[in-house]
Amino acid sequence: MKNTLRLGAAAIAILVAGPAFAAGKMTLYCSPQEEWCQLMVTEFEKETGIKVAMTRKSSGETFAQIKAEASNPKGDVWWGGTGDPHLQAAEEGLTEAYTSEHLDELHDWAQRQHAAADKKSVGIYAGALGFGYNEELLKKHGLPEPRCWSDLIKPEFRGEVQMANPNSSGTAYTMLATMVQLMGEDEAFDYLKALHQNINQYTKSGSAPIKAAAQGETTVGIVFQHDAVTMRVTGAPIKVVSPCEGTGYEIGSMSIIKGARNLEEAKKFYDFALRPDIQTMAAQAKAYQVPSNKQATPPPEAPDFDEIKLIDYDFKKYGSSDERQRLLKKWDEEVAAQPR
Amino acid sequence: MLNRPLAAWLAAGWAAALLLPWYMLDDGLFSFVWLTEGYAGDRDYAPALFQVLWHERYWLAPLGLFLALPLLAVGRPDNGRGTGMLLVAAGAGGLFWLLLQGFGIDHRGVSLALLEPLVPEGGRQYGMGWGASLVALAFLFFITQGLAAHGLARGDVFVAGSIGLVVALVAAFIFFPVLTILSSALRDNQGALAPFLFLDKLFDGRIWGTACLTGGGRCGSAWNSLILAVLTGLSTTLLGLAFALVVTRTGFRAKRMLRTLTVLPIITPPFVIGLAIILLFGRSGAVTQFVADLLGLDAGRWVYGLPGILFAQTLAFTPIAFLVLIGVVEGVSPSMEEAAQTLRADAWTTFTTVSLPLMRPGLANAFLLGFIESLADFGNPLVLGGSYDVLATDIFFAIVGAQYDQGRAAVLAIVLLSFTLMAFWAQQRWLGRRSYATVSGKGDSGLPLQLPPALRRLCYVVVIPWAALTAVIYLMILFGGFVEFWGRDHTLTLRHYIHAFSVVEGEHGLVWSGAAWNSFWTTLQIAAISAVPTAALGLLTAWLLVRQSFGFKRAFEFGTMLSFAIPGTIIGVSYILAFNVPPLELTGTGIILVISFVFRNMPVGVRAGIATMSQLDRSLDEASLTLRANSFTTVRKVILPLLRPAILAALVYSFVRAMTAISAVVFLVSANYEMATTYILGRVENGDYGLAIAYCSVLILVMLAAIGLMQWVVGHRRLGRRAPSVASAAEQTS
């Protein structure tokens, strides 16, 4: 009786679900913008027939979810989003080590991310920090064009600069860490204190300052340059600036989640996402970061990494929890608590 | 003999154990593949009996014992003490074992040494499914039946069962997850106990700093939140009262329009009001620019910070106060007011000494809701906060920010909860033990008193400009969906709507090709599904609180209010922590969304129910009971029809909140269940305002239609009040 039932069930299962199951499925946690996520899913499904269930959440939200789900993971791959939470996930053992056959084709910085995370993460794109300003407002207030970090602390910019709060935003933390590496810790904090006098608002979200600049609510917004490019492409009078002293950058990363239920499919996606032809497609989804594969063509609108003075950003050191906590606390006590 | 409800639950328990799949199905609750794909022969689909017999899950066997125990009661006198003891033992034993094995053996295998002898090598199990849940319910009702036999709720089986049900649900879906996350307040990031770190976090200057009072610097987020919540509570209650008075007690002509207008803000998805306010009052906003040009001032950024948030919250939460107050204001008995006037009190004295005090429960409840909503609100401070930090946003960014710190989030949540507790306590003190009953069985067909002229003018002065402002904001929002780039390029276009909601003719009929359809249908479905249980559970709880007496009533009441006071972020993360693993494995399903909505929004049903019900005189229930109706019939035939405003408020509110909630939902949505708000949030993050606003406009229209439909289904309460004019008298009698 029992066996007959089982046989029957198996037969039906093969008849009904067989072909669909053969191609497999996977769950993708995706952190960049919706269009880019959709594009990746569609292309991957088209090529492999693997069904992808995709959820888009910001990198902080995804990290929180993966951490909360750690005892019974539901996701397979976490694609995109700034590198620090990926490193943190690696540090806490939430992600799986994997080395793709495409690793050698990647830019140096992407490979360094792989090494820094003990192979548990890899760089897929990079975006340089900088700022953008509203050309119309600048003219209206008769302000000089800012070209360097040091321009932003000039007294005439009082109340005209906006940045995110590094406690809530990875973008602003990157800026804090960049300043420390660029100027040395003491001078960096002197700079941030001076900048504090010109800041009109510390926003919660990292890209909010440039949106405010596009709307005319602030003149200058400190953000990743590709976010400023996105606003410019929508038609806002935003000018993107790469600071003359040099600047830091983020590495958008990808990790396989530890305990992934569909590990084979996850690895396929991982390799797929590192391929040059796939990375070149990013521009279709209005993503203006620099791709990590050397053979991929960056979008024409993307800030040219060869023209930007990039600092040698130490992701391992400034991505670690201890250093981050120390800097954030110091910023909070010495900068944010100052009267304006 | 067994009484009928008990026999029914016993049968249900056995049927669940013998026939229904015991574990949660991967394919969803309403999938029936288990019938065709193996059923009892399949390890995943088999009912409990077959799990024990064929699949080596021996640890389920003791449950049969506890299910069999009540059978001993057959033939014993009904409701005898012995039977009661037996039932309690069966129910409590069964539930205990269910929980023990549920938490002791999970998807990774056995973790409780005690259970190891029962579990063969590699034995493991998944979350509770239909079978397990129904059996758990049966055990629960054994307990309440047994306790009723011992005199709980004066032996009323229905009341005892209701109390048991509400307590169990609140315990499972509020206390369990919330305690899971709050316990992390005592731990460091690695999970080790760290009580000193807790104190350190609790007395952090970022929470309690008072530098802004002494000049310079900033104040802690706790003070900011508290100030904001008190101001919002006051402003929403006063405005809500003004609206309620204008609608019920004046000859104002455009009442209907006013009602619709007051409902608009609650049906608005988050961020939109904030964006509209920036476009009007921001530095480059239309109004700010106009005033600046007029006065020759430099346009300022005054709207960011306390003024902006207060403004947005007042706009957003006044409707809740209005919904609570309208039922109460309508319910105030004209005969009392007429009595005052017979005693030669003038209109003003009558209003301040009779009408207003009778509205106290409404005022107190409205204030409490406004206060709590403001504390937990996250969307408005996010958009308009400037550098004004509040607890709700701090909590969100303690979890998703640059430094994941669950402990800090939990500490902040504890601070926030203690504020709620204080407000709740103050409200109880203020209401005291007086009676506010004004709807009784006696003939009470008085004429509702018109407002005193001075007060009427004041109400008009407040209500009309506010209504106009609301109208302007909504026209702007509607407009924003039809232009290229809201606030910058006002060329008319339909492209946002086409992108989101296009439908094309395909080979096989219509194809819903718009980008928004998927999340739109899911949202509509989930909101509709969650509205009914929310209202039912809320009103049932209110009825228990107002009409029944039992020992732990205050604690019970606070427990039901708890989920409302907890910020969505905490609920979201705590639901993942608690419900990602067996025995209740719900993440990634639509059910987890429904459950989170039901338990988050239930308190509104409870509040509205309490406010309305404390006006209904007990003599009505007593009359019904004297006529030998049981408590269930009394609720259905007497209380429910008089509760129509409260039912409507609860239904509307839960539906709407399910469509507009964001902070909890962010963590609970999954690939198959994406909600409209998270989709919109994604667009806003990307600066794609046109699409976000177009989507919001559609949602607003859908909600308006849904509210109209609900109003029509629930109907109006008819109190035996004389109507002021012949025309409307005809309307009432028709």
TrEMBL record, chain A:
One of its GO terms (cellular component) is outer membrane-bounded periplasmic space. Coiled coil: none annotated. Residues 1-22 form the signal peptide. The keyword Nucleotide-binding does not apply. The keyword Signal applies. GO terms for molecular function: polyamine binding; thiamine binding; thiamine pyrophosphate binding. InterPro entries: Ferric-bd, Sperm_putr-bd. It holds the Pfam family SBP_bac_6. GO terms for biological process: polyamine transport; thiamine transport. Keywords: Signal. This is ABC transporter substrate-binding protein. It comes from Marinimicrococcus flavescens.
From TrEMBL, chain B:
The chain crosses the membrane at residues 7-25, 58-74, 86-105, 125-145, 157-179, 226-248, 260-282, 302-326, 409-426, 458-483, 526-546, 558-578, 590-610, 646-669, 689-714. Residues 222-427, 520-710 form the ABC transmembrane type-1 domain. It is a multi-pass membrane protein. CDD domains: TM_PBP2. GO terms for cellular component: plasma membrane. Its main location: membrane. GO terms for biological process: transmembrane transport. It is found in: Cell membrane. Keywords: Cell membrane, Membrane, Transmembrane, Transmembrane helix, Transport. Belongs to the binding-protein-dependent transport system permease family. This is Iron ABC transporter permease. It comes from Marinimicrococcus flavescens.
